[in-house]
């Protein structure tokens, strides 16, 4: 109406290469194991669709400190409690959301994912090794790639249960992955 101040608009990232953002249903949620590329793909996807990007692991670090220190100080059980809190908040946002690899362990999180656009990013063990080198991932402190494989196999049924789309990231460009997710999510809009 005339004389009313305009509603505050939240700035959105500029679309990639000047292209108009694609209309997609939000949130789009990325799940998968450590090293699958959720953060990298998520950031590019958010830019592509003109939405904010939320990395729940990064949000935990901003609020509570480094994840490896949380594990060392408080243990995995405490970490999972704060992870659940951060994930529940992020899933209510109109954003591209990257979940930590173990977020799907929580039954309430799996319930929250029902009906959302959830993409499972997959990666082959031989491709994930270099991606994890030099990282600070508390669940891999002992056992390295063998431990990663065990964790991935244990979580596989959970990823399968929550995802509407699965994409192999081992030998594909981020641009191709983003295009595939955008096309799939656009069909859902």
Structural topology:
Blueprint: E1 28-31, H1 38-49, E2 53-55, H2 56-64, H3 67-74, H4 76-90, E3 96-98, H5 107-113, E4 117-122, H6 125-132, H7 144-162, E5 165-168, H8 174-188
Parallel strand pairs: 1-3, 1-4, 2-3, 4-5
Helix pairs in contact: 1-8, 2-4, 3-4
Task: Walk me through what this model shows.
There is one protein chain. α3 (67-74) crosses α4 (76-90). The protein has helices at residues 38-49, 56-64, 67-74, 76-90, 107-113, 125-132, 144-162, 174-188, and strands at 28-31, 53-55, 96-98, 117-122, 165-168. It starts with 27 loop residues before the first strand and ends with a helix. The protein has eight helices and five strands. The chain has a single domain, classed as 3-Layer(aba) Sandwich (Rossmann fold), CATH 3.40.50.300. With 189 residues, the protein is of the alpha/beta class. The chain is globular, with a radius of gyration of 17 Å. The longest helix has 19 residues, at 144-162. It has a five-stranded parallel beta sheet, with helices on both faces.
């Amino acid at each position: 109406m005339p004389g009313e101040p305009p509603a505050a608009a939240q700035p959105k990232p500029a679309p990639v290469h000047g292209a108009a953002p694609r209309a997609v249903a939000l949130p789009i949620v990325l799940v998968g194991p450590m090293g699958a590329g959720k953060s990298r793909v998520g950031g590019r996807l958010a830019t592509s669709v003109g939405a904010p990007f939320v990395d729940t692991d990064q949000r935990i670090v901003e609020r509570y400190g480094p994840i490896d220190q949380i594990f060392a100080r408080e243990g995995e059980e405490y970490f999972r409690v704060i992870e659940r809190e951060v994930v529940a908040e992020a899933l209510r946002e109109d954003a591209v959301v990257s979940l930590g690899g173990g977020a799907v362990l929580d039954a309430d999180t799996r319930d929250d994912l029902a009906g959302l656009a959830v993409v499972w990013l997959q990666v082959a063990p031989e491709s994930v090794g270099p991606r994890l080198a030099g990282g600070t991932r508390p669940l891999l402190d002992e056992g390295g790639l063998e431990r990663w494989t065990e964790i991935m196999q244990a979580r596989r049924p959970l990823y399968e249960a929550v995802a509407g789309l699965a994409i192999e990231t081992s030998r594909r460009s981020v641009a191709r992955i983003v295009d595939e997710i955008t096309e799939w999510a656009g069909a859902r809009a």
